[in-house]
Amino acid sequence: MTGPDPAVAATRLAVREQFADVPEGGLVMVACSGGPDSLALAAALGFEAPRAGLRAGAIVVDHGLQQGSAAVAEQAAEICRTLSLDPVDVAQAEVRLTGSGLEADARSARFKAIEAVADRRGASLVLLGHTRDDQAEQVLLGLSRGSGARSLSGMPVRRGRFVRPLLALPRATTLAACQALDLEPWHDPHNADPSFRRVRARRLLESLEGELGPGFAAALARSADLLREDADHLESLAVRARADLPSAPGDPGVDLEALAALPRAIRTRVWRILAAEAGAPISDVSAAHVESLDALLTSWHGQGPLHVPGGIAVARTGASIRFSPIRETADTH
Fold first, then answer.
1. N or C of the chain: less Cβ packing under 10 Å?
2. Which residues, listed in sequence order, are joined to residue 315 by a DSSP beta bridge?
């Protein structure tokens, strides 16, 4: 008796390795769009979960951004049901445009919808179908933002209950798995629209693979793994440094002298923490923002207040640095 197709076996093994911390009878759900990556992942979960004494379910998100999206979502849900997944929930995402771009706003709405279903169902894990190619694309996008090691470290395999079992596998494996299982994936038209940055990054990656060799995407993914270890360590030091930062004497702001005394590799990360505490979306705080903030310490000549994403003003006042909503800053003049 022959075993499963190698691509199918690879996806099943990748899923099986994530079950160690799931209690017996626990529910593992997959976020499934109906595309080849998440469909191969759904098939692997439907096969492996019962054999591990676990329940398997799926969450399909309808973003409502394309004509016929409801029908596409229902079709994906029906395929999940044929793969022995139960429960299967179709969730409507409420995409609100914030100025961060449609990709970012849709991603935020998608995770919010998935989180709501996972909470309601009591899911132990939610599996996401990102592959090694997605990781490489993420690194390229990080390079374009110039936001440092964290931006270049890509996506983690696990964050909380969200898990990416396929992150070490190329997209070709998920396509081959779907073909071997006679699954017909849906191909999102947005994935061919060059107005989206990720689509342009994907095309650039394909070009670089052709020019520099077929191992280029894998090398980017390996670099992301190494950088993530470094970034995690530095950020743990930055969190500790932020906790130890005193306020200026008689001033609620952060003490200038204490902040300036931090090593630059730590201080730049502390700036991001301070911005996030003030309400800035951390993913939107670029290296250019951090450089401008750091100049309040290293080359200050009366400039400010500076603005960071989220409507936050940052000013050097006396012996402190203050973060405040722009409207409050405006009201004081």
1. N
2. 322
Cis peptide before 87 (omega within 30 of 0): yes
Structural tokens at position 286: 């670029």
Give the domain extent around 252: 245-331
- The dihedral sign for the CA sequence 33, 19, 228, 8: negative
For residues 160 and 294, state if they share a domain.
Answer: no
Tokens of 161: 């209950």
Look up tokens 């500076």; give the residue. Answer: 306
Four-residue CA torsion sign, 200, 98, 304, 149: negative
Let me know: does 218 contact 132? Beta carbons within 8 Å.
yes
Q: What are phi and psi of 274, to 5 degrees?
A: -60, -40
In a domain, 145, yes or no: yes
Which segments in the chain show pLDDT lower than 70?
1, 98-100, 145-151, 250-251, 327-333
Kindly provide the residue ranges of all beta strands, DSSP E only, lying in the chain, ordered along the sequence.
Answer: 27-31, 55-62, 88-92, 125-127, 158-159, 162-163, 254-255, 306-308, 312-317, 320-325
